[in-house]
């Protein structure tokens, strides 16, 4: 499965952006709090306009967004 960034409007994927790293979203059962913070930072909505909660395990964030969101989480989500 091709790794691609889950952020809206981000087109980064492992095929065309091989220099980037792709970080997998935290597991729902192992790290629920960390996962929620990340989903809040990603700010993607589902069909009903609620906070996106992907069912697949294969959700990745590219290193551009990883750095941005890590900053947001560390400074604004404590
Ligand atoms: Zn991205």
Question: Mind explaining what this structure looks like?
Answer:
A two-stranded antiparallel ribbon has the order 1-2. Helix 1 packs across helix 2. The chain has one domain. The model has no long low-confidence stretch (mean pLDDT 94). The protein has two helices and two strands; from the N terminus they run E-H-E-H. The chain is globular, with a radius of gyration of 12 Å. The protein has 78 residues and is mostly helical. Bound molecules: zinc ion. Zinc ion binds next to helix 2. Zinc ion (ZN) binds next to helix 2. InterPro entries: THAP_Znf. Keywords: DNA-binding, Membrane, Metal-binding, Transmembrane, Transmembrane helix, Zinc, Zinc-finger.
Strand order of the largest sheet: 1-2
Mean pLDDT reading: 94
Helicity range of the residues?
25-40%
Bound molecules: zinc ion
Largest sheet: 2 strands, antiparallel
Q: What proportion of the residues form beta strands (DSSP E)? A: 5-15%
Which runs of at least 5 residues are low in confidence (pLDDT < 50)?
A: none
User: How are helices and strands ordered from N to C?
Assistant: EHEH
Work out the number of β strands. Answer: 2
* Spatial extent as radius of gyration: 12 Å
Distance between the termini: 34 Å
Q: What is the 3D form? A: globular
The tally of domains stands at: 1
Number of helices: 2
The structure class reads mainly alpha
